[in-house]
Amino acid sequence: MAAVRRPVCSGRPRRDRLRGGHVRTVRVTGAEFDVRDEGEGDAVLLVAGGGASGRVWDLHQVPALRAAGFRVLTFDRRPLRNTQAAPDPRTAAVELLYVLAELDLPRCRAVGVSAGAEVVQELMLARPGLVTGAVLMATRGRGDLSGRAMADAERELAAAGVRLPPRYAAWQRAVLNLSPATWRREDELLDWLDLFEAAERAGTAPVPVPADGEPADRLAALGRVTVPVLVLGFEHDLIVPPWLCREVAAALPSARYAEIADCGHYGYLERPAEVNSALLEFLTGAP
């Protein structure tokens, strides 16, 4: 794992004109984090999936958490070098530890999705006591054939320097991330396709290149995590199938598993009411 030193920049606080929250920029070796901090109460850190902006939480999860009386922290990570390579979960967790120390946040609840959920898992392992309760959505604790095949394909595509046409890239993204239930609702599907295509044309939907090597098997290590955890699987998830989520829940001593029906990898966006209900029920009961 690459070494990560303490931040060299303590941050530049400013107002977020769009949401009224505070934004602070913290630099660690190789990356800058723009952290948005809003609301009061117990802190909840939201960690998005690989390549996704922290603003992906704004439409549904941030308003629900703020309305429930939580302080909400989201962030965007910007590499300081011209690279598409995503940090592995343990490296990303070490970076976040320094960011949270710079923010003087000794304890928080944490919510992660996909690669972000794997980062939350590593936070709990690296610094016991920091995360007092966690929600892990679409997570995994080991590599699998499907994940390896997708990672190999994405690395090969990046190495070839190929950029898919926006309309095709939007269709592919919809196929991989949305559920059959959404595909049956054509008006809703059209909205998703338009959104994905617009993001592709604007260049705001980069696909991070997966880190080289086989993901480590962390299931045994997760047995050391003793805080309450809710693991959420999404019924039609092709990226992280629900059985991988159930493995994580089984490995965690104080976890329970729940599955959200009729959604794919973007379940927290496809079924926000159901996801938020499970999220808030758990977080309001966690210490």
TrEMBL record:
Keywords: Hydrolase
Entries under Pfam families matching the protein: Abhydrolase_6
MF terms (GO), sorted A to Z: hydrolase activity
Residue stretches making up the AB hydrolase-1 domain: 44-277
InterPro entries from the UniProt entry: AB_hydrolase_1, AB_hydrolase_fold
Superkingdom per UniProt: Bacteria
Organism listed in the record: Streptomyces chromofuscus
The organism's taxonomic lineage, starting at the top: Bacteria, Bacillati, Actinomycetota, Actinomycetes, Kitasatosporales
PANTHER family attached to this UniProt entry: AB HYDROLASE-1 DOMAIN-CONTAINING PROTEIN, HYDROLASE
Protein name stated in the entry: Alpha/beta hydrolase
Presence of the UniProt keyword DNA damage in the record: no
